[in-house]
Amino acid sequence: MIIAKKQTGRVRSIVIVVFAIVAISGAGLYVVKNLREERARLRPVEEPAGAAKNDDSVTLAAPEGTDPLEVRSALAFRPGGEVGQSVVELGPAASAATSAEVARGRQGLLERELVRQGILLAARDELGATTRDTVLGEAVSNDPRSHVGYVSSLIPRGEDATLFVRSGEGAAHETVYQGNLGAIAARDEAAPDALALLVQQVEALSRQDLPATLGKLGLSKGKAITWGEFDGPAALEDRLSTLSFPEVFGVIREVHASIRKQGESAARLAALARAYAMLGVLSEFHYRPAHKAYKARALLYAQRLVAKQATRPLAFWTRAYVWALVGRPQETIADLERAGKRLESEPGTASPAWVPVIAAAAHGDLDALSLAPPECANLASLFRLTLCEYPASPYLTNSAVNEVVKRAPECYRAIDAGCNAPALGEIRAMSTFGPQVLAQTLATRLRGLAAIPAEIAAALDAPSSDSVAIVSALEAAAAKDDAELSWSALASLIRETSFVQITRWIYLNKFMLSVPIDDQWPVMQRFVADHPYKPLLESYLLPPAQGDAARDRLRAAVSRPDLESAQHNLLEILKRDSFSDSRSPLHMISLHLDHDTHDLGLFLRDAAWSRMSTLVSAARVLTALDPQTGIGRAFLVQNDYDRVHDQAELWAKEQKLPAVLAVALAGRYQASKDETRAIDLLEHAANLVPDVDTVEKLANIYKSKGQMDRWRRVLDNFLTQAPPTGLDHAKVQVDLANYLMSQKKWDEAWPYAQDAAESWAGWAITCAQECAEGRNDLDSAEKYAQGLSQRYPDQAWAQWYHFCKTYGRGDVESAYALGKEAIAELERKSTPAPARERAYFHWLGGEYKTASIEFEAAYSLEKKGEDLFLAVLTADAGGDTARRDRLFADFETKFGATTPKTVKIWNIIRAASDQIKQGKFDYKPVDELVESTSAENRWYTQYLVGQMIRNLGRSKDAMKYYKAVQARGVKGWIKALVNDSARLGAGDSKTAFAL
Questions:
Q1: 719 with 751: CB under 8 angstroms?
Q2: DSSP 671-726
Q3: Predicted model pTM
Q4: What's the average model confidence in pLDDT over 408-437?
């Protein structure tokens, strides 16, 4: 097998063209060879003892007489556009709380958004106003004359939450309304119905108290919204099942327009609630919390339908659908039961086809999801993804991502989940596929939306059209738009999707593939030019000093009230600040957690963002909300076992025990020496989810017991039964090959090593090269060595040359040239190869002066006497006697006391140099010193003696020392040097001395 060179340049150019929205032919699923890199698991950090509790305030001041913990948003009214109704604008969420004050409350983003969206719901659906929300990226006027006050939520721990509406600001403010929302913020396990009660309370206020409150602030009532039994939007199921955010956005606009013209109906409210919930899920990966606002609207509209149609099953089916997408399984099940009871009085009413799908999702039943009817297959695949992605099981996550993307390639939520995979191949595939699909489908999707304004149509049809031009056209159209949602909300969805895609692609190439992409930044930056987190990308690409400045700009731009776990790359930058207390922006994440399976699962997966006590609390909440959870219960078994011990014994007996929980329980039983139960649980997990980590845990138990036949059988079964995922198969194949090679079963190991090398992973190719050498198949071995040097020049730059010099064969000149080119390139990149590696390389190449300088450089770094003496030897080999003597004097001074025999041998050989050159020297004194060294280290002394004698031109005399080293079975550079020297001593430059 010949390993091909990396095709990074081609991939780079394709992606840049995609970001420029230039047409790429051959649309379809991007298929690449599966690769896998082990992703380093972020371990939870322990809570620091005595951590300081500083109270550094943020810059925003709290209005006089208000609680700094309040999260408030500016409220503005302005005249409307063509339709003439008033426009109600809501500003971003802000807080004046210090760290200590924040710690006494909660600021769950969904809880916050329920309050904010409740105000807008009252304005829009009770008073007939148009609404605009900056959290959704909608354009607002920012005219201070339109400001009327603000709305805020206060959610202290263990106390009743409150909604405030105030007029004015600062000392001049007046509380116009204060509404009690109930106690929704328990410190530990949440009451299962707490969020449901908040939804009910806010929705009721949106119909009862809040319209009058807005009237007090000056909002006049527009056209009344009537009620009637009208049909829902056409082809709703087909449009939602695309999992395409422009299509779902279009559904929402059409339903709002229909309600405004023809009034509300059960079908329209149901469609609105479901579409908002879907849009919330599809935008979960964005760096702004718009998805929380969309989910809040979905919950409020579903609750509005329940309030108006409490006797009809459709209302509860709809609310169950929303709860399922929001991630509240118990509420989903409860509403399905309520719908079933109401269905008894409507025996002729058929339940929607998606009801069994959401029921299966609520129960975590993957088997039932696989039985979804064709019209619900996309929805079922989306639910399967949400159930499988936390934790990141390579098998489950990748199969779930691929299923969604195969069915609905415009689901950027699934594509982004693929970018979180542990396997480099999947990350690379999805990081390229996402922008490709957006480029190919965006214009077509937008052309299909109803009532596209002329400026948007013109931007879509322009020959030079790209996403920047489309976003600009959408924002221009929003200035004259009276509809819900506004065109600027769609512009924001496009902008945020592009930003995350570009971030993913840059991070992949810069940090995972080490591909230089700095020259591509001028092309890409126009697509993120107006994004507030553009400094994040600049911190990746700019030179160090400018990168530091970019990180400072990023810290200033971060919206602390909006921080959440999904903003992974942003949090990595903030984590480097190493805050150890509640001042840290990262501390805000735990306070912004909502009690839903998505937030809590993501929080536990990326566990390094918080303290152990916070993580354990989150796991308890998740387990209370979803008793079937795998990751929540597994986390408690691993980190809170004393508390859950009795429950864990019951969990271990469950028939449908989740794999991640089985593995956690197995770890506990193995630690207590109950290996029988550990094996049973690991076998259950491996049969359920054949992840390589689980399989290796099981195999290693057998290995520790010396049962190598069972160890091999487990690994062989994995290779037979589990589909290839990343580098999983290659990893197992290398384990098997290495074991068999250790038994000298080279031919038996060969198929495993060959198959592993097909992954192109460096360690797998190295294994195949070693196996080929063991089989004396040097042609194959050289191909692997050559492939390593060509494919991994940063790490394996010398592999090919090393092989050639070890065996005295191959294209030595080309191999040496490739190594020198790699050394120069690494120097240019300021990531030089290790000095000792460079020294051996030049020594083998006969560049003795350079080798001596490099050995001395290695010595200056690590102060190893070995390096200093090798600098002496290479200077001697090059005939630089002055340098040799200076270095030896230094060596004798510093290491003579610890290596006296080396010094004596050197002095004997130097004193007898003339005799040695004439072939008249008796080596007995040298041999006696060599024999007096320890058996363990004798070979190294023999290696040094051989090189000393060779330097004097007596390679044949050195042969007995070389052969002794060869018999020792040494590897690495010394193997190559000794073999090369031995060939010279034998008068044969081609013969390889196999060890």
A1: no
A2: HTT-HHHHHHHHHHHHHHS--HHHHHHHHHHHHHTT-HHHHHHHHHHHHHHSPP-T
A3: 0.81
A4: 90
